[in-house]
Structures are given as structure tokens and as C-alpha cells.
Amino acid sequence: MVNDVVVVGAGPVGLLLAAELRLVGVDVTVIERAAARSPHSKALTLHPRSLEVLAMRGLAGPFVREGVPVPTGHYGGLPVRLDFSVLDTRFPYTLVLPQLRTEQLLEERLRELGGEIRWEHRALQVRQDADGAEVDVAGPDGTYTLRAAWVVGCDGAGSTVRSSAGIDFPGTRATTTGFLGDVVLDAPPSAPSVDNEHGASWSSRWPTDTTASRAPPGSPSPSPPISRSPSTSCADMCARSRARTSGCGRPAGCPGSATPPARPPATATAASCSPGTRRICICPWGARA
Questions:
Q1: What is the pLDDT along the chain (289 residues), one digit of tens a residue?
Q2: For residues 206 and 96, what is the distance between their CA atoms, to the nearest angstrom?
Q3: In terms of residue numbers, what domain contains 112?
Q4: Which of 25, 32, 71, 251 makes a 20 to 30 Å CA pair with 144?
């Protein structure tokens, strides 16, 4: 069987792309190497333009109802806040909503349109020829090959699709390591953020939980490796900054992340999506059509 499109990666980009393809009748299969969706909140923010794009398809309602609007935001951690209320938009705010919920809502949309997601199916290699492309896949029952007219890479920083397409990924070295913890605070802070000699910490609240995040202090030199022990990381984060007075509560997990992320060259990415030139397409973080 030949698919119209195979999307590698079931994150927000891959899910929304697959739903858009299904909307116009394109046969699409999404493969995702993870066995299940991550339970962590991960990214928390939907920006005004993202909400506008969702509204174009009548999808913004559930996001707005479940999220928490925040009318200001920081730029590079500077103390002066950006005021989103002056924007000419229906959504003059950023929306705090866990990525977990964002992905669930987008998956519901995809399934309503008849899309297929194959969990725990990892792309091993992608090949292309004059008529399309093939993806070697490792699944729970062994390896197999999917053939499609197009293969789209939405598989993040370690993209197999990008590597197979020969697209460089030089990026930049991370300068800061941050911690993100899903916790229920015993005494939620009155201020959304604190910046002191122990580092910077902030919290975002939504109807059922509060997330606390901490960035370490110091110069913009590479931070030390991230500990993967949730209890230790959350306890350390709480003890070192504002959270010591807030009570760190029940930690659901503290995945670490390095920032800023690397990304492919913009010119190479744009070229990879030109019709008639490549059968492998990359949708990078932060890309705009």
C-alpha cells in the first residue's frame, strides 16, 4: 500500500499537519517512536498567532476554555514585560495550557477526520526516488517499510528524516539549563516570578495544577548536565528559590531542558519543502508557512 503522506512525529506540529491533510482528503499515516504520550506538561504557552490559526479551523474554543490567559510576557528574561493587550487580535494574550492537553485536543481532531497514529513505531531511515519515498520503521511486531508520495519530518531535534535528507543541523550551544516541574504548591506565591542570587523561578497556573520552573543563576556559560531524578530536582528547585516559602507539594515530574534549541539553516529548510525538488520535508520548531 502506498500512502499519500507519512508524517514522522506525533507532537503538535505533526498532529496539526496530519489533520490539515485529512481535511482535504489526503491519506496520511502518523508514526511516533514513543509508546505513549508524555504525561508531563512540557511546553505551556500558545501565542496569539497560534490561537488565530486554530480559530481558522474552528478549533480555538476548547483551548481557550481550558487554558489560562496571560496578558503579558517576558522577552529574554528582561524585567520589562511585553503587553499583549495592545495587539489587534481576538486573542490579546498568551494561553497557558500544558502541551499534553494541546496534543490530546489535536489528536482528537485528527481521529475525527479519520487519521491514523501508530504509537511505538520508530523511523529508522528514509529513502527517496523519483516517484516518492520509503520509510523503514521499527514497530512492536518487527520492522517494515512504508512507501509514500511524501514523507514529512516533525520528529524534533534528533530528526531521522532530516538526517536522511542530508539537511545540516549546526545549531548553537545551549547557554542555560532550566528545570520544569509539574507540582501542586501548598502555598501558591503571590508573584508570578522571582529572580534572586539563587536563580530565577516562575509559576503558571491552570485550573487543576500549577507548574513551577527554575533557571539557574550565573553567567551565560553552559550549565551542568541535568539530573533526571524528579524528586531530587524538584526539592532542589524549591529549596533554592521562592518555592521554599510556597511548599513544593506533590511533584509529578521535573523534566529538564536546555535553551536555546538548535535548528537547521532556514535556507535549507525552505528548500526542502519546495514542490518537485524533494520528497522529504522538514517542519522545524518555530517554522512559519
A1: 688 999 999 999 999 999 999 999 999 999 999 999 988 878 888 999 999 999 999 999 999 999 989 898 878 777 788 999 999 999 999 998 889 999 999 999 999 999 999 999 999 999 999 999 999 999 999 999 999 999 999 998 889 999 999 988 777 777 766 666 776 666 666 655 555 555 555 555 655 555 555 555 544 444 444 444 444 455 565 555 444 444 455 555 544 444 444 555 543 333 333 333 334 444 433 333 3
A2: 7
A3: 2-44+98-170+263-282
A4: 25
Q: Which residues pair with 224 in a beta bridge?
A: none
Asked if residue 61 is part of any domain, the answer here is no
What's the CA gap between 161 and 8, in Å, rounded? Answer: 8
* Residue 114 three-state SS: coil
Specify the pTM: 0.74
- In the chain, the largest separation of any two C-alpha atoms, in whole Å, equals 63
C-beta of residue 211 within 8 angstroms of C-beta of residue 253: no
Looking at the structure, tell me whether residues 159 and 213 fall in a common domain: no
DSSP 132: E
DSSP notation for 21-70? HHHTT--EEEEESSSS--SS----EE-HHHHHHHHHTT-HHHHHHHSEEE
Query: For residue 82, how far is the Cα from the chain centroid?
Result: 22
